[in-house]
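no rush on this but wanted to send it before i forget. what follows is a protein written twice so to speak, once as letters and once as structure tokens for the fold. mainly i need to know what kind of three dimensional shape the backbone takes. thanks a lot i owe you, the record is right below.
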Amino acid sequence: MELPVVGEVGVAVVVAAVLGVLWATSTGLLIAARVQLARSRARARRLTAQLEDQGRRPPRNVAERAVKVAVSTVAKVRDHGVSSLVLSSIDDLTRWALEDRAEIAKVAAPDGTVTVLFSDVESSTAMNEELGDTAWVRLLEAHDALVRAQVDRHHGHVVKSQGDGFMVVFGDPADAVSAAIGVQRALGSARGRRLRRHPIRVRLGMHTGPTISRDGDYFGRSVAFAARVAARADGGQVLVSDAVRDALPDEHGYVLEDLGEVGLKGLQGEHRLWAVDWSAP
């Protein structure tokens, strides 16, 4: 029995709705919409493929929900401008932590842990204002492609991407560290015209912890911890928690600098952080 192709139908509806409303607006708005739609298309296709593999029908209301997302996106851009669509923070991404439980569980290590990584672009609001909406959104497209390439190469799973930020999970903490190093090195030697012309600095942070318990508490704490580690990073830095360092194999080969114990917003006590020297061979 042939399953309906939810990704194509839903995305087609979104494209028609968004472009119909934004047709007469600026190029920056249309490009911003394109970025969001491309992300939605990829997610819809992954969902459809997963359901087909399981022999299940995709939910009937996907197209309806796609229309609601389109209308919401248009309203957000109309009321607050492009920056409301393409700018985000690590805190925003944590709200999506539990939307992808099944995929996160698949990624988990044999001992039931995941390594959660957050990334975002330093001074993104100022860069958006300096470059203008069109150039900024195009720069984000180049940034997205670079980050996703490293995540895929190191067996990670993107839980959510929004604006200039990513939330990613890995089953192996060494893969997470390698992916973060790959992102920083790729940005440092970016060959793409846009990234060469407008260099960006990305901050990355991660934590290893238990996956989702029945009520979601364990994973929620891991996400919050990883978000606070990333928030302590400066652009160009990769920070890891003590739990990540302890979970790495004995001869991991990474160069880690002990930053000592620091306070993390919303978390009790002091927590030791480590900076990864991604320039080391």
Confidence is low (pLDDT under 50) at residues 1-9, 21-28, 62-87. Residues 22 and 265 are 40 Å apart (CA to CA). The two ends are 53 Å apart (CA to CA).
